[in-house]
Write the C-alpha cells for this entry.
Amino acid sequence: MAHAYDLIIVGGGMVGASLACALGDTPLRIAVVESHPAKTEWPAESYDIRVSAITRATERVFRMVGAWQGMVARRVTPYSAMSVWDATGTGSIGFDAADLGEPDLGHIIENRVILAALLERMAQFDNIDLLCPAQVSALERDENAATLTLADGRTVTAALIVGADGANSWVREQAGITTTGWPYEQTAVVATIRTERHHHGVAYQRFMPEGPLAFLPMPEGLSSIVWSTTPERSAELIELDEQTFLAELQLAFGDKLGAMESTGPRGAFPLLLRHANRYCDERLVLVGNAAHAIHPLAGQGLNLGVSDIAALAEVVLETRRNGGDIGELAVLRRYERWRKADNVAVMAAMDGFKRLFSNDIAPLKLLRNLGLSLTDHSGPVKNMMMRRALGLSGDLPRLSRGKAL
Ligand SMILES: Cc1cc2nc3c(=O)[nH]c(=O)nc-3n(C[C@H](O)[C@H](O)[C@H](O)COP(=O)(O)OP(=O)(O)OC[C@H]3O[C@@H](n4cnc5c(N)ncnc54)[C@H](O)[C@@H]3O)c2cc1C
C-alpha cells in the first residue's frame, strides 16, 4: 500500500527532531508534527533556564546527524570534573575526566540551543517535512497503515507513527498504553546564577534531605542551577525577591563558588517518574519522555531519549534495507527489548539515589556518607561509574558509538 510517508514523528522536541535528523538523507519519507513553533533566535546575552547535561554518547549522535556544529556555533560548555557531597555528613566523591584520559565528562547545553541546531539541520534534508504548528486530532491504525488527522482537517498516512510527544504523550494515550510511576513530591527550581568565583568547568551537586542542588557550568563563569525541593518550598523560592533568594541559595550550597551575586529568571518543574509499560503497538512506537520520564538528578532523561532514537533509527533502516515492513510489531519489539533494559536500569538507579539521599534516618545517613567516601577511594568502581555517566558502557547503538547507520 502506498503511504504519503514512511514515518510520522509526533513531537518535534529534542528527541523527535534528533530522530528526524538521524533518518535524514535516507530513502525514508518523514513528517514531523509539532504543535508549538520553536524559538530559534534570542538576545545574545540571555540564557535559557532549561539546560541539559549531555553525555559523550549523545554528543556522538549529535555529531553523526550533523547538528553538533550548529550547537558549538551557538554555545556549549564542556565540564571536566564533578564534585558531589552529602549536606548531612562528611561523605563526598569527585570525578575527573583526566582519570579516564577523556577531555571532558560531557557538555552543558541550553535546551533551546540543542533544538535550534537540530531544526536547522532538519531543514537541510529533502526527505523530511516539518508540519508546525499543527495540532493532532485523531489517530487510526490498521494492518497496513496509520492515519493521523490534524485539527485543520488534513490527514497524513504512514507505515509507522512515532510518539516523541513528551511525558504526557497523546500518542501513548491513543494506543491505550498504560504507565507505571509516581510523583516525586519534588519540584525543580531552575535559574542561571552569577557567582563570585568561576566554576572552571566543574559541576557541583549537593544532596540535601529535601532533594539535590546542582550547579552546572555555563559560559562566562555562570552556572545553571537545578534545585529539587518540596513543592511548597519551591513555590516560596520562586516568589522570593532576588536578594533573599540568593541568600537562601548561598545557605543551601555553601561557599564553594564564593558569593551568589545575581540570578536571571526562575522557573519550576514538578518531577515525576513515569514509565510506559510497553514501548510499541501495531504501527506505533514511543521514544524519549513519552516512554520514560525520570528524576533529573543525574541528568539522564534526554540522554536516554537520544539513545532510544539511535536504536530505533538503526532498527528501522536495517528493516527497510532488507525489504521489511517498518511498522510491524516484531520489528518494533526489537527496539523495545534493546532500550527497555537500559532505561529501566537507569530509572531504578535514579529512583534509588533519590530515596537514599532524601532521607534523614541516621543509619542511612551514615551508610551513604561511608558509601560515597569508599567509592571515592576505589579507582575501578569510580571509573566504571564515570564510563556509565559518559554513556560509554552497555549495548550502544551505532550512532552512539560514532558509526554511520
Ligand atoms: C529540571 C530538569 C532538568 C533536566 N536536566 C537534564 C539533563 O541535564 N540531562 C538530560 O539528559 N536530561 C535532563 N532532563 C530531562 C530532559 O529535559 C527530557 O528528558 C527531555 O526534554 C525529553 O525530550 P522529549 O523530546 O522526549 O520530550 P519534550 O521535551 O517534552 O518534547 C515533546 C515535544 O512534543 C510536542 N508535543 C507534545 N504533544 C504534542 C502533540 N499532541 N502534537 C504535536 N506535538 C506535541 C511538544 O510541544 C514538544 O516540542 C531534565 C528535566 C528537567 C525537568
